Amino acid sequence: MFITKLANRESGIILYGITPPRLESPEERIREIGKVQSDRVMALGADGLVIYDLQDETSRTSQQRPFPFTPTLDAWTFADQYIHISGISKIVYCSVGKRNPEQMRNIMSSTSAADSLVLVGLPSRDEKAVMHLKDAYNLWNEAQTGGMLGGVAIAERHSSDNAEHIRLLRKASEGCSYFITQCVYNLEYMQKLVTDLSAECEIRGLQVPYIIFTLTPCGSAKTLQFLNWLGINVPDHLSEELSQSENMLEKSIHICLDIARDIAKFCRQKNVPFGFNIESVSARKIEIEASEQLLTSVKSWQTELIRY
Length: 308
Known about the structure:
Radius of gyration: 18 Å
Strand order of the largest sheet: 1-2-3-4-5-6-7-8
Shape: globular
Strand content: 15-25%
């Protein structure tokens, strides 16, 4: 359904995002986690499972990381060897900066027509890349794989330089069929990006790329701090609402649902095809359950989402 909806520019895609297990995990535990995650996404009925390729982003900022970075299993390895799902696409984030051309060719040639890669660069320009993003895009076009290629959209970056929409269109010209956003809490930032992207596409006579908006429940003050550390802008009034709430997690779910409905309404007005990616990136059981609740709630009004 993921690939079909993308090809038809049909709004309403629902994805579920996870992180791979810790690199130090024993083989038996990795297999167990793979089965649990496979069963979970099948039960949720999502169109696709997003597997993030985590990188140590401490070089991106001088601020102290709220949670220590723990290396995880390579996302492609986890998706390929441990995730077994039927009728649901795997959308695998792939950090190209740590891979050489031969490794990237092998991954691309192994990507099935039902699955997708999202290529990402290094967190900081100060880090030395084995391969650059543009070179990876060239390899993708040479490989002519049957799958679809995705990219990342960051509204916070657009708010500071007003150029994210140009970057997205350049990536679209290099092979990206859709974009997944960073977690959305600042609706104004996201609306500005979509508006500028839509306007630029009209000027150039292009179709607006498919945008998948990421929603993330927040269940603790430390998680909220971590979102800020990652560069996700949580407006002061929402941060205050969350902090003062008796049940932060429940409050965040309501906020995310309100944001989703506002995004759906806005994208319909702009005639932009859209979907949602609900992240489950916390190790806390309560936050995992909250992500499932959020996905189920968003999925329940899919008919509303795709009605123009």
